[in-house]
Amino acid sequence: MKTLEYLDATKARLGLPSDYALAKRLEVTKETVSQLRSGKMQISDAMARKISEILGVSPIEVLIAKNAEKAKDPEIQAGWNALLEKISKGFELLLSGAGPRGIRRSTC
Q1: What class has domain 2-103?
Q2: 3-state secondary structure (DSSP) of residue 84
Q3: The pTM is what?
Q4: How far apart are CA 28 and CA 105, in angstroms?
Q5: What pLDDT shows up at residue 89?
Q6: What is the pLDDT of residues 70-92, one digit of tens each?
């Protein structure tokens, strides 16, 4: 479940000791974090943006992962996961050409 990975990674990145501290940092209630962990609730768009900023990943990645989890149909879920993989590879490719001042341009 990707939601748990995002919550745990956010908590670790910020060095937070508890889900209560995580909830405060994400500006939600402890109950919201509990419901996210249990699968009773999905990450909101605003929370996806906050998590992506903290983790330094694209908000699109978090939103696609959210939609993949939400999908009930295995084919739709597979489609979301395939899109997530493509986008992740695309961002990796872009970043591999980036230097300290941004993306390097080809001299061709």
Answers
A1: mainly alpha
A2: helix
A3: 0.72
A4: 42
A5: 72
A6: 888 999 989 988 988 887 776 56
